[in-house]
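Run log // design_07
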């Protein structure tokens, strides 16, 4: 691809306007004719996609990125299926001509593999602007945990059982529980989708997950969740969005004085204490938890979640 984008190239790239639906009314009025069985009817209205940034090991800590971040993206299923997925598909068609591209934050940032076309500065600017707009206009709730590994090693909360991943998982599950409680969804099963990391790691994670949902958590209640492991090559829109949000959270923690457009946009996604009227405020220690706290005190358990912005009715 040439280094400069002429007018025809830009016009071709934007031949499909983002967020527009040819048959929007048909989509809004669509109702499945299938009659769900008892198990299907027990599914909640929400689905959760999980990703991480950094590694959770404590033996060799990367001095340039001594953190581990776990991020839960909580999506209303109908809004996700009817709005977010088509928008991501159109975005991919605009820039790559097909929709089999998997959006990886690392590859985008490093301009690697399919994203080497972003070495064209004009194309890179357009791509990032459109991606930022897409993320900003997509409604989802974010619950995340940052583990400061240097501080964790010298804290009084680290045990053999409490590795960084498990600590972060516990907080995020509790935040998800409180969000679903507000939405009256605790009588239904909510699926949590995570990317496969390896047989050994997946087995350990599943065991810890099962232990927590069986009631071994700080709430001492069973959690109505089910974990689903997803192949790394799966073209899951939700997992790609989760991948895009995790690292900006870590960078903001490490270098809060540095400009971070991605994190500035994410502020309004975090579960916050004041609900919709306080978007982007009062989310620290609630939708975004830092571990360990400087005081080594108990972490705050979220009690009220921010609402989705105008989710479609099921």
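design_07 sequence
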């Amino acid at each position: 691809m040439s280094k400069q984008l002429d007018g025809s190239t830009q016009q071709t790239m934007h031949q499909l306007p983002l967020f527009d639906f040819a048959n929007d009314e048909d989509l809004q009025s669509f109702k499945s004719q299938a009659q769900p069985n008892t198990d299907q009817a027990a599914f909640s209205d929400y689905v959760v996609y999980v990703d991480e940034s950094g590694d959770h090991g404590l033996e060799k800590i990367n001095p340039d990125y001594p953190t581990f971040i776990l991020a839960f993206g909580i999506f209303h299923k109908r809004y996700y299926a009817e709005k977010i997925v088509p928008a991501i598909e159109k975005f991919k068609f605009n820039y790559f001509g097909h929709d089999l591209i998997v959006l990886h934050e690392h590859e985008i940032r490093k301009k690697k593999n399919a994203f080497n076309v972003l070495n064209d500065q004009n194309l890179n600017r357009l791509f990032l602007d459109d991606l930022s707009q897409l993320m900003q206009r997509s409604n989802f709730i974010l619950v995340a945990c940052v583990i400061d590994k240097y501080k964790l090693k010298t804290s009084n909360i680290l045990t053999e059982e409490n590795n960084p991943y498990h600590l972060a998982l516990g907080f995020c599950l509790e935040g998800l529980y409180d969000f679903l409680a507000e939405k009256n969804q605790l009588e239904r099963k909510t699926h949590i989708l995570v990317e496969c990391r390896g047989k050994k790691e997946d087995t350990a994670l599943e065991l810890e997950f099962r232990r927590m949902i069986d009631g071994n958590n700080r709430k001492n209640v069973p959690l109505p969740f089910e974990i689903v492991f997803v192949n790394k090559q799966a073209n899951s829109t939700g997992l790609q969005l989760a991948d895009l949000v995790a690292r900006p959270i870590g960078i903001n923690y490490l270098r809060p004085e540095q400009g971070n457009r991605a994190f500035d946009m994410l502020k309004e996604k975090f579960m916050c204490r004041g609900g919709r009227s306080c978007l982007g405020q009062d989310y620290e220690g609630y939708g975004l938890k830092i571990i360990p706290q400087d005081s080594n005190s108990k972490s705050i358990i979220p009690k009220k979640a921010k609402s989705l912005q105008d989710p479609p009715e099921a």
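The two ends are 44 Å apart (CA to CA).
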